[in-house]
Amino acid sequence: MDFNVKRLAADAGTFLSRAVQFTEEKLGQAEKTELDAHLENLLVRAESTKQWTERIMKQTEILLQPNPNLRLEEFVYEKLEKKAPTRVNNHELLGQSMIESGNEFGPGTAYGNALIKCGETEKQIGGAERELIQSAAINFLTPFRNFLEGDFKTILKERKLLQVKRLDLDAAKTRLKKARMADARAVAEQELRMTQSEFDRQAEITRLLLEGVSSTHAHQLRCLNDFVEAQTTYYAQCYQYMVDLQKQLGSFPTSFSNNNQSSVSGGASISVPTIPVSASLPSVSGGHGSSAVSGGFNELRSSNGSRKARVLYDYDAASSSELSLLADEVITVSSVPGMDSDWLMGERGNQKGKVPITYLELLN
């Protein structure tokens, strides 16, 4: 019991001595041992590394998951050491909606088929995005987090201990200055040698840990290379997916009326970059040259008569003035004065409406 009491009294005395020394330093009433310039520079670099690592991590997490609520949920699951539920990302949601709508409109129709192909591509991009997030979490964010929660916490612990040893050293220096009797000076000098030794030893430990930040920079550089490689793979996959999709959609016939074109041209000019693809519109010549086809339509317009035409592709009417078409059906087409040259008037029984000529093949 006496030993414990003495130990508690000694600890209380040490704590009080440190508190007095710290207070007097703040008031400018006591001298303070300064760390050497090299150690100070290492401390500044370590603190800077910590701050920028936190900032880069935060911005990377925002990039990979823009939704703050989902980031918070993932953080809670991580702290509880539970696996977060697998969520469908935005690309996958869009892809699923496109596929479902395409099936609703009919996979045999041009629009339905295009929707399904677009949906499948969006889901592929969603899968690539999921792989990017997983790779970034493992090879980039985790090592950065390990530094903050491991190495830097150790540095902070040893730095605080260095501050304690420095206070003990300066308190011992103060007691030596105040000692008047020979015995008291001898005790103070012995205490000073001991505290100086402990301070030097702790300073060396702290210095070695701080110099290890250079290794941390080298490791984070490798992690940065991994992150860039993951992004490169992701964007290359997305580019290839979209090029393939553009080629597939390029095989679908499209036409725009002058009305649609004039509505766009009336506004500001918009330049849309396109990816060159080798796919082109399928031939509608039926074995004859394209000039012959154009000539057939021109002849029909000039004669103001009617002709039979075979439908090449499904077409969904965009308005009540148009006629929906089914591939391989035969309809009657005629020209109406003033009608856009890309369109003819089509008839099927009692149904009548505009039809695009790129979907037709005139019959003899």
Short description:
A five-stranded antiparallel beta sheet has the order 4-3-2-1-5, with helices on one face.
Strand content: 5-15%
The outline comes out as rod-shaped
Give the SSE order as H and E letters: HHHHHHHHHEEEEE
Order of strands across the biggest sheet? 4-3-2-1-5
Structure class:
alpha+beta
Overall pLDDT metric:
82
- List the total number of helices: 9
Helix content: 55-70%
Counted beta strands: 5
Extract low-pLDDT stretches.
Answer: 255-293
Q: The biggest beta sheet, please?
A: 5 strands, antiparallel
**Separation of termini?**
118 Å
Structural Rg:
39 Å
Top keywords for this entry?
364 residues, 7% strand, 66% helix, 9 helices, 5-stranded antiparallel sheet, alpha+beta, rod-shaped
Explain how this protein is built.
This protein has about 375 residues and is of the alpha+beta class. The protein has 9 helices and 5 strands, in the order αααααααααβββββ. The protein has helices at about 1-25, 35-65, 70-80, 90-105, 110-180, 180-210, 215-250, 260-265, 290-305, and strands at about 305-310, 330-335, 345-350, 350-355, 360. α2 runs parallel beside α6, α4 packs antiparallel against α5 and α5 runs antiparallel to α6 (about 180-210). The longest helix has about 70 residues, at about 110-180.
